[in-house]
Design goal:
The protein is about 60% helix and about 0% strand. The chain is built from three helices and no strands. The protein has helices at about 10-25, 30-45, 50-55. It is flat, with a radius of gyration of 19 Å.
């Protein structure tokens, strides 16, 4: 039996499947996929409480909050 040219990495396969799913949901429009991902990241960041990240994020002036 011949071996595959590249070993199948389950994590990469799962990631590829998620990307394919997003591309399919947006009819192949990569820009729409990126916009959706950015909106999801912004929404998640807005839900993180200040107390949880206190001192871990840079402030607007570059210094720590």
């Amino acid at each position: 039996m011949a071996e595959a040219a590249h070993p199948i990495d389950p994590a990469q396969s799962a990631l590829d499947q998620r990307v394919d799913s997003l591309m399919s949901a947006h009819q192949g429009d990569a820009r729409a996929v990126i916009e959706t991902l950015l909106l999801a990241i912004d929404a998640r960041a807005a839900r993180i409480s200040f107390g949880f990240v206190r001192g871990r994020l840079p402030g607007p002036d570059g210094g720590e909050i």
